[in-house]
Amino acid sequence: MTLTEDRPGRGPRGGRPRPPAGTRSPSAPRALLRWPRAATPWIFLAPVLALFGVFKFWPTLWGMYLSFFQVRPYLGNKWVGWANFRTAFHDAALRSAVEHTVIDALVTVAASAVIGFGLALLLEGPARHLRILRTAAFLPVVTAMVAVAELWNTILYPGGYGTLNTLLGHLGLGPEPFLSSPHSSLASVMLIQVWKSAPYDMVIFVAGLAGIDKQLYEAAAIDGAGAWHRLRHVTLPSLRPVTTIVITLGIIRGLRVFTEIYVLTGGGPAGSTETIVTYTYKQGIQNNQLGLASAVSTVLFLVTVLLTCLTLWWRRRKEA
Amino acid sequence: MSAPRSSTVRTTGRRRALPMAALAVTLVAASTALTACGGSGGGSGGGSASGPLKVWVRGAGDSQKAYQMVFDAYTRKTGVKIQLFMTNTDFETKLNAAAAAHKLPDVVIDDGSQLGAFESQGIITEVDKAKIAGADQVSGAAWKSVVDDQGKTYGVPFSAQANVLLVRSDWLKKVGLQAPKTWADLEKVAKAFTTQDPDGNGKNDTYGLDVPGSTQRGYLSWYWSNFLYQAGGNFLVPSGSGGFDSVIDSPQAVQAARFLEKMYCTDKVVQPGALNNLTTDTNTAFQTGVAGMYLTGPYAYATMDATAVKGKYDVVAPPAGPKGVGSLAEGTTVYAMAGSKRAADFDTLASFMVSAPAQKLGMTGVPTSTIVRLPINTTVDPAKVHADDSRWQVAQQVYANSSTYEPVSAPDWQTYRNDASESLNKMLSGCDDPAKTLSSLDSTYTSLLKK
């Protein structure tokens, strides 16, 4: 949200119609003109801000407020102070959900970024066949998660005649339990997340690659740098801001992972894929503990803000 | 929710704009779970003294037609119009939103297992049995299912059911066995179904038991409770002082957990992926010949008969455990909602819904959706109503003679059921010691009961 226009009253005023003389004192029209100029961006932003206010910001604040109550929609909420937070922090199930979420976020962010970067290097360029390939690679991103999850459920069917297990069987391997064993369920879920998010990262990287000045490559090549050195010393440093965006978005995506897990495993087996948001959903919707669910969401929100700020701080330090 | 878009940022404003954008994105992210809870209800509010009676029913698909038929008959009889709202999606969440706005409907028709939760939320009101015409025709077991831990009646039963065992009859013939009558038989048939290629396709791809083992909505506990009752155990028992005591670590309960675990871990006769499976998955497994025995409610008849498995399965009573035949009983209840000014209309509606004509209509009005599974009205004989289908007699006999309701009147019973599912799911996945699992579940129950 950047204001790039000149502040009224300071910039050149050539061409602006003067108010008819004699109707008002000289200072009044200037104030009147100043107001709409300053308000213009806000007027344009108003519809979306109003929507976000009603559907995002207000519920978030309301959720924070509810964290301190035992939520009883009909009888009226009961103030419980920090009790919900205490319950949350003492719940072993939430602790393991946090562990799973952190592992999930780190692995999927790293794997998606690496694969996305690799895809971007392979598929960058204006040629038509590359555009088609990029579109094909991007399809997982725009496909509805629930549909994709159901499809993967079939592919990863744990019996010997599941799609992937049949292929493994031809190689003399398997059958693997995939989603049905607590030892492999989280890895299987992460595989699907990477499959879905790597192309998203690819698109951001492709945009980043397109923005790199070609002269830098030429200069490096003249200096005798090989492909690896050009990648290491030209491409990667130039992509630093883009990488920050990829990592920030990835972490946020990782911390709030829900749909794929809810559809594929529901957090099981044995809670092995329970994440913070599936835990929150269970507490809030299934166990009717909306206060506790709000407390967990509030903590998740604060942690996400903190992590985002840390990433930005780290990036600025790196770029300075 | 789609992934957040990257924001294009001008160099001059980057320092300020990026944190702002990040903040916006995180706000969006963190509020995902909460907005779901704050969503508005799907119907308009109740509480008005005139106009149509507002009724919310948890259900979808063909059951909407079936309920509409029952309500139309009621309107014809009494002149009271009904405004119906039905959904299966987040029904209780929508009810929460309506409760928060103090715009509850006049009547809610939902699972009997919601009783304790609704009562502790204060959203249902007590029912005066004396004002329900034909209350004496309603079976004692059904009335008991709507009584809370203090002995007060909170709702009127509309439908009842008990779990029965669906067994592939063609598979039994192939392996030369009878439908199981005891736990030992069940295990024997399950092993035969798993190892003797009952579908004759030459592949080792069939299983004995079809288990919805997911923890979602408490499925595994729901399934396992059949074995618990067959062993003579229970979750909670009334303590005498108006509360409950946990008996989930009793020797009977341990025996029931050990039996299921043996079949899952040692015999390996349960369908693959069971611990993530919901009923939609287990329905498919039975329909497509993955597993040959399925303990479920009689509503499954319609589901199964719509597929290729029609005519290839028998319905029998669940097997007898150490205590004898046991089965999970469940019901659908008509709840009177708090704040409604239509108490008299509730009484006439509930009276109509327990009456013989309404019960019969619910059983057969829409063949694909038996909203009344077993009649709670003792003057209605399911064998006569479903004269061409003896499977309903089996269900009726199991319900009448050997079924047990979950302790649904415990405040927030769903929480107990979910905790049991989590524990059992963990036990099965790690093949852990059942006694230890149930002992730790008992501590959870005890601390929940103290609240």
Automatic annotation (TrEMBL), chain A:
What does UniProt give as GO cellular component?
plasma membrane
Q: Does the keyword Transport apply?
A: yes
Query: What PROSITE patterns does UniProt report for this protein, alphabetically?
Result: ABC_TM1
Question: Where is it chiefly localized?
Answer: membrane
Keywords associated with the record: Cell membrane, Membrane, Transmembrane, Transmembrane helix, Transport
Enumerate the spans annotated as ABC transmembrane type-1 domain.
Answer: 98-311
Q: InterPro entries, alphabetically?
A: ABC_transporter_permease, MetI-like, MetI-like_sf
Q: Name one Pfam family in it.
A: BPD_transp_1
CDD domains, alphabetized: TM_PBP2
Which family does this protein fall into?
A: Belongs to the binding-protein-dependent transport system permease family.
State what protein this is by name: Carbohydrate ABC transporter membrane protein 1, CUT1 family
**Which organism encodes this protein?**
Actinacidiphila yanglinensis
UniProtKB/TrEMBL annotation, chain B:
Q: Give the highest taxon in the source lineage.
A: Bacteria
State whether keyword Transmembrane helix applies: no
Xref: CDD domains: PBP2_TMBP_like
Report the leader peptide range. 1-36
What the entry lists under SUPFAM superfamilies is as follows: Periplasmic binding protein-like II (SSF53850)
Cited InterPro entries: Bact_solute-bd_prot1, SBP
Keywords assigned by UniProt?
Answer: Cell membrane, Lipoprotein, Membrane, Palmitate, Signal
List the Pfam families: SBP_bac_1
What is this protein's record name? Carbohydrate ABC transporter substrate-binding protein, CUT1 family
